[in-house]
Amino acid sequence: MSAGLQHYLDVAQRFQAEQAETAPLWLRALREEGLAQLSRQGFPTPRHEDWKYTDVAPIVSRGFAPVGAGRSVDLKARVEQLALPGPRLVFVDGRHSPELSSLEGLYEGVTVKSLRVAVREDAEALEAVLGRRARAEAHPFTALNAALLEEGAFVQVRPGAVAPSPVQLFFLASGAGAAPVLASPRIVVVAGENSEAALVELYAGVEGGASFTNAVTEVVLGDNARLHHYKLQAEPDAAFHLASLHARLSRDSSLTSHAFALGGALARNEVYSVFAGEGGECVLNGLYVGHGTQHLDNRTDLDHAVPRCTSRELYKGVLDDRARGTFHGRVLVRQDAQRTDASQTNRNLLLSEEALVDTRPQLEILADDVKCAHGAAVGRLDEQALFYLRARGIPRAEAERLLTYAFASEVVGAVKLEPLRARVEQLLAGRLPGGARREVGA
Amino acid sequence: MLLSVRNLHARIGDKEILKGINLELKPGEVHAIMGPNGSGKSTLSQVLAGRETYKVTQGEVLFEGKDLLALTPEQRAVAGVFLAFQYPVEIPGVGNLHFLRTALNAQRRSRGLEELDAMDFLSLAKERMKLVQMDQGFLNRSVNEGFSGGEKKRNEVFQMAVLQPRLAILDETDSGLDIDALRIVAGGVNALRSKERGMLVITHYQRLLDYIVPDKVHVMAGGRIVMSGGKELALELEKKGYAWVEKLGPAAGREART
């Protein structure tokens, strides 16, 4: 066994021993299963098919560990500056901070609780879903998350409730303290029949400290429920971030996921979505923008298990300097899933000679009456368009910026949530070549 | 002199396309350049605008006495050169209004002028659009995206009206236009004629010159100007066809070499 794995097993064992007396039995079982699975599977290496392009050795070899409770860091100003308006739960270094959180303005019919509170107050509802979508035996980092399961959020939307403005879950790495910090948030969303809600996961950090976020989100949508899920990962360039979203869509339900990966030395975002009832609709939008030596990995998996469902996937990547991106998108159309309508597109823009992307669309179609389209492309800035802009007096660097922004705008523009879109645009402006020199926008 | 082109040679890859162009244009003049396909007309316009795919191997171009070839495309635009593209490029995701304001302000900045704010620019744009009867809806669309051929050409002339260049090069601005669109585009161009501004109007057909009446007509063949004359030359060319000048191409070339 590697020293790295041993470290994480030790950390989890210690954590579970400390918590043994206070945790309910079902939660203890979940944690123990996580630990057992991690021990059994070990961490992946590039020899694993699913981790061919992403080497987690830099994470495994460092001694990331959860911070103890009760540490207080004054981050109020920082949170006010970075959080979006509206009700929010705030987590600092993985720990829920009641002082920085505020659920004012929460829609009726929506309940948001920190996971620790929900374990006490809503045990039955939580137990029914926790760990059912994101299974420890399927994924070593899900297993790690389960082994350290303590913090996170439980969001419930009552049947029929319509809450168009979002609930925000804000995860901040404080950068305080010398030890490398591990945060293992678990987010559980249960949307009742005929409901509509929006959820934002926002990940940010203060430059300086070493952090590793290992997040797992589980979503269960009732019949005809709609969920708009937004994830903005804008952690410092030195951060490590692994996250997965696991969704189950019942009949006529709809999930729209927008995933923005802007920060992190190594970041991987996974989305697993299963259609469990006919008439479902799933939209997956993604944008990853890397520079320096960032490594941004995107893994999506759409399971058309039943007939008559629609999926639309669009992931775009912009890679500069020596950044590396990967996209692996699987669409499975099972034998019974007749009249499936699925499309998948992955387009990448490389801004430097050293930037690299691996794109791997994977369509497995076992039904015969389906409409499926896919496309993947890797390209550079269009020289003709560049010349056109320059011939109008726009300097080369600015023209490149304008075209790069235009490339990304297809994904950014799909965000209907105005404050979030503005935030993404602002972050993007600072990260595109040329820095935050001038305003951008269409 | 606004523009002096002297013995200009240019190539793309191993292929020499311009084989010694000579041309003098004074402020206030409109010159037409006619010629068959492949004669080098469009190459000349691209070389003057600074397209880097073409390599100038010989000769010089002076713009208001300064070496134009030493400038980047954006510096040429700032100096006052404008190319109306034969094939305007579609740029999805970049709004027409934003694009043109960025362009105008980049030029103003380089000239040491104050930038126009969004409001001032919008009123300027709205006023100049009238020149080519463009609908305001075009301002909010992406640059040229989904525009018809005629709309693209009108958009080029609209840009010229906003940027107010010293030298306008119109590269086959008439191609693909029906007669109504041609009238509108030509009307816009004529409204922009002035004592300070020179224009090079590149066209395959004489038809455009009924609407934009040139001071001089040059005929290109085989990478050279083989004939120059007044506006009546265009009519003669229309009657005799390009076969007439294509025969002159090699002869004129020999002349130029001796």
What's this model, at a glance?
Chain A has 442 residues and is of the alpha/beta class.
H and E order of chain B: EEEHEEHEEHHEHEHEHEEHH
SS class of chain B = alpha/beta
Strand order in the sheet with the most strands of chain A = 2-1-5-8-10-12-14-16-18-20
Element-level helix/strand string of chain A = HHHHEEEHHHEEEEEEEEEEEEEEEEEHHH
Distance between the termini of chain B: 27 Å
Average pLDDT number of chain A: 94
Morphology call of chain A: globular
With strands numbered from the N-terminus, the spatial order across the biggest sheet of chain B is: 6-9-10-3-11-12
The gyration radius over C-alpha positions of chain A equals 21 Å
- Portion of residues in beta strands of chain B equals 25-35%
Write the layout of secondary structure elements.
The complex is a heterodimer of chains A (442) and B (258).
Chain A: H1 3-19, H2 25-41, H3 57-60, H4 76-82, E1 88-92, E2 95-96, E3 110-114, H5 115-121, H6 123-127, H7 140-147, E4 152-157, E5 162-173, E6 181-183, E7 186-191, E8 196-205, E9 211-221, E10 226-234, E11 240-249, E12 254-261, E13 266-275, E14 281-290, E15 295-304, E16 310-319, E17 324-333, E18 341-350, E19 356-365, E20 371-379, H8 383-390, H9 396-412, H10 418-431
Parallel strand pairs in A: 1-5, 4-7, 5-8, 6-9, 7-9, 8-10, 9-11, 10-12, 11-13, 12-14, 13-15, 14-16, 15-17, 16-18, 17-19, 18-20
Antiparallel strand pairs in A: 1-2, 3-4
Chain B: E1 3-12, E2 15-25, E3 30-34, H1 41-49, E4 55-63, E5 66-67, H2 73-79, E6 81-84, E7 91-95, H3 96-110, H4 118-129, E8 142-143, H5 149-163, E9 167-171, H6 179-191, E10 198-203, H7 208-211, E11 216-221, E12 224-229, H8 232-240, H9 242-257
Parallel strand pairs in B: 3-10, 3-11, 6-9, 9-10
Antiparallel strand pairs in B: 1-2, 1-4, 4-5, 7-8, 11-12
Helix pairs in contact in B: 5-6
